[in-house]
Design brief:
The structure is a homodimer.
Chain A: H1 2-35, H2 42-60, H3 63-73, H4 80-97, H5 101-124, H6 127-148, H7 154-162, H8 168-190, H9 207-221, E1 230-232, E2 238-240, E3 246-250, H10 257-275, H11 292-306, H12 310-323, H13 332-339, H14 353-371, H15 380-392, H16 418-437, H17 441-446, H18 451-460, H19 470-478, H20 485-498
Parallel strand pairs in A: 1-3
Antiparallel strand pairs in A: 2-3
Helix pairs in contact in A: 1-2, 3-4, 5-6, 6-7, 8-14, 8-20, 9-10, 10-11, 11-16, 12-13, 14-15, 14-16, 16-20
């Protein structure tokens, strides 16, 4: 029995390794398409990607895969890694296998057309163009939930793809508390006399100088350039092919000092997570970050909690002043306020640390209601604008800067958005524990020593890859379940000081 | 019958398309490894490449492939494209299938170890380290020829992999004539009073300036940057993923103006060939250059016949002088002589246009004798040095700059070298016809109009992809079989003028 098991496990691992080679090949082709591809090559690259993804899909849904899943499901007392491998394989298998094949094909085409329709709609700022596609995408997702099944709330099933185990019940609680706290804080800030000066950041900064400084910061953070590289692309992203090739991109604006810098710190957080995955997990499908939410907790932790802290800039600001004459005569406190300015705005991707979560909560509330049939697609522009007015006090002038701004719904990625805000909550919970474990944390940051932070994250989070679900991870690390109180306390404390509340 | 045929052909094409997707994916991963990969990622990338190549190999040697080959082999009167598709598929199939599987595996491992041994041997300049591997590689190739069969000369079978249809009989004739002609010309040049001045080329040139000028030249040549890109790598190369993504690389030396420039023109010649392949051939396995020799004819044509002509520099030299103050006061004739200096040397890759072919002929003579059992591996260093002394008048001081300089034998690529010299012969034959078709050819070049040349090459050569074998192609285009007289005449004419002979 033991011998048979070992052989089977070896075969299973070999099989998953192949699947990972394929997925990573897809990722290389994709990276190249975003970073370096010549214009005319895009259609053929699409064909290549389609073929390789199709092959990966075949491996994921093959009879062989089914046999592995069935075999290991019949065995009790699997070790954590094997158990998680089987569960992840099963999830991938069932995600498509439970859907009738013709339905799934129809949906794939719809999702692809939906993207094109969304693009046109956004360009023309006309929701009507996108509406019929969105209606069908929502209908399909509701139908699929019928095949997949659900326990308490239909939307839970979709959430589970991005944040395994999270539920509407939990999110309603933490997002509700967070929303109320932010709205209250935001109103106080609006009445504050403090008006941060952001003009210095809008002067002219050369790409080369920005790149050099971003690399300097990434080095100190502990991003390993021998296992990664920094490139330019339209939108910043992190992508990895195993743990030894974790690449990040950014986009430089010559009239904006903050954009590329903080996107590099953000993507650097994602990348350090992937670089710290242990070699043993590579090839098991568990050798990557466990969920979107935990991933965002790492990127936002570095970007906001560390990267927008006063201690961080006590160390880096002298270097900024040395490299950029644009900040001559600007004291550190003014710089610090400038990178933490709160400005309720219409566009999620341009939002500040405080208001960002509100953008997400609005999308969460809408998605949840859509999937549960409580609102209709045709009412979205109106509902969207109402919520922006209520929570953020701003109102979109048109669909493009309102309901059409994000591409996520265009290919049916419902359930994805909440991860962004979850990242903030997880991050603050981790911070609370980290400070207890390392009382000198902020002194370290002030001295430009970010190694202890990286090690703590590695030991507590990164080294587990995808072995444990987010809920177990957060409990194991912090001793508490997911909650909003630490992030709310962090926000209140930080912004009260900045805005003299 | 016709309907059954059409369905089968459609299936065959679908099958080949998949194989091409895989091969092109391998190529993207390979390009990235040479141009952009982080250091620590190399081993895993090797695994990914191994997996994808293995999948491509499976498709090439599958029973399905065998069925296609058998089916179409039974049909007379196939159109040229289909016939060529079947032939190329059969060749790939038989190349490995005729070898017993365990032999082939053994050989693959040997080839891989051979590379490592060669690297060490070259580093230590000690042929003894590489000798046992080379002996086995030669023995395997001789054994394989037994499985593959041969008609007149055993070495023909190896040649056929790189230059389909070429034979020892033909090569002995053309290479013999070429060797004698070059040696005679070389001796005259040695006695000439003309001593080109190469000092200006060795001043300091910034990478940025070199790159900008190379791009300028490539643009005028007609290399399409919307279907390609120029990058840096240790050794220059061209690689393509279809006809819309044809990438070239170069290597910049700050103390050498000629190296990057002429390597760009050379690789540009390869790349224009691939960019000009018609869309209809993509996905058929015929949508690429037909042979190594024809490919080299394109690159060498651009690099030497065009790129080192006086007319080319009548157009470009003013631009050089504008961009590079290093050439201040240097007249065009001096520049022209400098880029055409003849210097017999030890290293093939650094050879000038005239002596380059001698380096190749030496390798050809050695390979031919090795495969036919006329010489032994252990005698190679001695034979090598003797031939260099005889043909080029130079003698290697050690194995590294002698018999160990090229990596080609380390993985068993016997039969590859001749293509380099064949390219010179083909190119001059094409030139002869081109001048007849376009009497204003050199006037065009002088005016910086290189479009007619590109169009002529496209119409006569590029548009056929791999449909016709080299021998048919050269006959169809020039009306003559492969011969050495045009290249010899070209060399005599050119160097007599330069060296006042």
């Amino acid at each position: 029995m033991r011998e048979g098991y070992d052989i089977k496990l070896g075969e299973f691992k070999e099989y998953l390794k192949k699947l990972e080679y394929l997925n990573n090949s897809v990722a290389v082709l994709y990276w190249d398409m975003r970073v370096g591809i010549p214009k005319k090559a895009i259609p053929y690259r699409g064909e290549m990607l389609g073929y390789l993804s199709g092959e990966a899909y075949k491996l994921q849904t093959s009879d062989t895969m089914k046999e592995f899943i069935d075999y290991f499901s019949g065995i009790e007392e699997l070790d954590d890694v094997t158990k998680s491998m089987v569960e992840s394989a099963r999830k991938n298998y069932e995600q498509t296998k439970k859907i009738p094949e013709d339905k799934y094909k129809e949906y794939t085409i719809l999702a692809s057309n939906g993207e094109a329709a969304w693009e046109e709609a956004k360009e023309k700022s006309d929701f009507e163009i996108f509406k019929p596609y969105l209606e069908k995408l929502v209908a399909f997702n509701k139908e699929f939930i019928g095949y997949w099944g659900f326990k308490e709330n239909k939307y839970d099933t979709l959430l589970d793809f991005y944040e395994p185990g999270i539920t509407v019940k939990e999110l309603d609680k933490v997002f509700g508390e967070l929303r109320d706290a932010i709205v209250t804080l935001l109103n106080k800030i609006k009445n504050s006399d403090v008006k941060p000066n952001v003009e210095p950041f809008k002067k002219n900064f050369s790409k080369e100088d920005q790149e050099a400084f971003s690399k300097h910061v990434l080095n100190i953070m502990g991003y390993d350039f021998e296992a990664g590289r920094l490139d330019e692309s339209t939108h910043p992203f992190t992508i990895n092919f195993g743990n030894k090739d974790v690449r990040i991109t950014t986009h430089y604006y010559d009239n904006d000092f903050r954009s590329a810098l903080f996107s590099c710190i953000h993507e650097g957080g994602h990348a350090i997570y992937e670089q710290n995955i242990p070699d043993e997990l590579i090839g098991t499908m568990l050798g990557t970050g466990v969920s979107m939410g935990i991933h965002e907790s790492q990127s936002r932790f570095y970007e906001n909690i560390i990267g927008r802290s006063i201690e961080f800039w006590k160390y880096f600001y002298p270097e900024v002043q040395k490299r950029f004459s644009q900040f001559e005569g600007i004291p550190l406190t003014e710089f610090y306020r400038g990178i933490n300015v709160v400005e309720p705005s219409l566009i999620r991707t341009e939002a500040d640390e405080l208001t960002y979560s509100l953008h997400i909560i609005i999308r969460y509330e809408i998605e949840k209601a859509l999937i549960n049939g409580e609102i209709k697609v045709e009412d979205l522009p109106h509902i969207w604008n109402e919520k922006y007015k209520e929570y953020l006090g701003v109102e979109p002038g048109n669909d493009a800067e309102g309901v059409l701004q994000d591409m996520h719904w265009s290919d049916g990625s419902f359930g994805y958005f909440p991860s962004y805000a979850l990242g903030n909550l997880y991050g603050a919970q981790f911070l609370n524990k980290m400070v207890k474990d390392m009382p000198d944390l902020y002194k370290d940051i002030e001295n430009g020593n970010l190694n202890n932070i990286r090690e703590w994250l590695k030991e507590n989070i990164h080294k587990h890859g995808s072995v444990y679900k987010p809920a177990k991870l957060i409990k194991d690390v912090t001793g508490e379940e997911l909650n909003a109180k630490y992030f709310i306390a962090y926000l209140n404390d930080k912004y009260s000081k900045i805005y003299n509340l």
